[in-house]
Amino acid sequence: MTMKLLVIALLAGGCAADPGTAANPVENGGFEKWTPASKQVQGTNWCPRLPDGLPDGWPIPNVIGRSDQSAAIGLDAKVHHGGDRSLRMENGNPFSTVELTQSVSVEPNTRYQIRMWVKGEAVSRSGGAVVHIVGSSDNSKTNRNLWGGSITGMDWYKSPSPNNGTFDWAEHVFTLDALPTTRAFKISLELRNASGTLWYDDVQVIRIEKIVPVESY
């Protein structure tokens, strides 16, 4: 092997951290695909209105009972950051919460970035826009409850800034470390205890690097 080829081989297989080159594991993070909601979901008095159904991969969690018919979840083909659609959440009740959730498989002892774009209009209170992330030992895609699985001590409420009032699209990045027992992040996008309108778009979970545990004596 020539010196030039040796250098290329070393660079290709090198020791540098892999800054998010893995595929985004979030299903339908751009909210382009929607499926009509079931009659059982639409018929309950605690559920928000779903004129466009639900975005694929983003069910309503079982703990959604804080919402009501003054709220709505829908697609927006006019207001979006990337692609042709975004997720729009509307709420007329300042004391209820609207949310969607998704479980994303992750590796233990690994650092991740969770990235998304958020826009707001007349959100009534500080902390109205919230991203709730729970670490779980359960990575089953069939467990649609935000609280399903064994909680591993990871429970974050991340508030984008700004998170109330009226604000234009802004990217928000949260860096999180999966614990040794963590197999999934359960990500909830919320309009929490506030009236107004929120848009979410281009949600990504990006693997940054493996974390080497350090023993203490």
Strands across the major sheet, in which order? 3-4-11-6-9
Determine the number of helices (DSSP H or I, runs of at least 4 residues): 2
Radius of gyration from the alpha-carbon trace, in angstroms: 19 Å
Q: Could you report the average pLDDT, rounded to the nearest whole number?
A: 80
CATH architecture tag: Sandwich
Sheet with most strands: 5 strands, antiparallel
| Separation of the first and last Cα atoms | 46 Å
Strand content: 35-45%
Given the helix and strand composition, which structural class is it?
A: mainly beta
Helix content: under 10%
Number of strands: 11
The fold-level CATH name is Jelly Rolls
Which features characterize this protein?
2 helices; four-stranded antiparallel beta sheet; disordered N terminus; 217 residues; 11 strands; single chain; Jelly Rolls; mainly beta; five-stranded antiparallel beta sheet
